[in-house]
Amino acid sequence: MPARGDHDARRRDVSEAVWRVLAARGFTGLTLRAVAAEMDASTGLLTHYFPNKRALVAYALDLAEERTANRPLRQAPPGLASLRAALLDVLPLTPAASAMNRVWVGSWDVALADPELGERQRRRYDDWRARLRPHVATAVERGELPAATDVDDTVASAAAFAHGIVVHALFAPDAYPPGRQTALLDAFLASLSGPPGGSPGGSAWA
Question: Rounded to two decimals, what is the model's pTM?
């Protein structure tokens, strides 16, 4: 039986190979054969970890979630500034962030086709909106957003806006360079500062 250290090292090798295949080919190209080729190993080795394609996909989602959770995050004062930082953390502003977003966008198809994986994704996005909510609530408390702001609707709008930029930037990176993505986000946040139909407030970071 292999030593624990050997087993852990092999699992790390498998994880890195899964991630490289995922980043290069997406979920449609994620197969046991592709991962084995990436490792220069046999598919028989991988069946010790993944008995089938679905197990491999579920593991890939675990890996993406782990890497997302462990990435460095921007720090900012509470309120609109921290909401901005949290949304910037999602945008494909760097090659690493672009690769991460390609993985997540690619996961939507497999999640929509599998009720269990779909429920898992739904919970993930619920958790993300829950993490955004305190930023918006604090912005209202601090007077950075109107007192009549519907916090949950604003959170939903902010999440949808960020996802929209992600999709556009992934498909047309030349048209949505990092500077433009940031400017669009700042304009969106500034538009939240005024009452509906009124003049939006100025951006605190312009």
Answer: 0.81
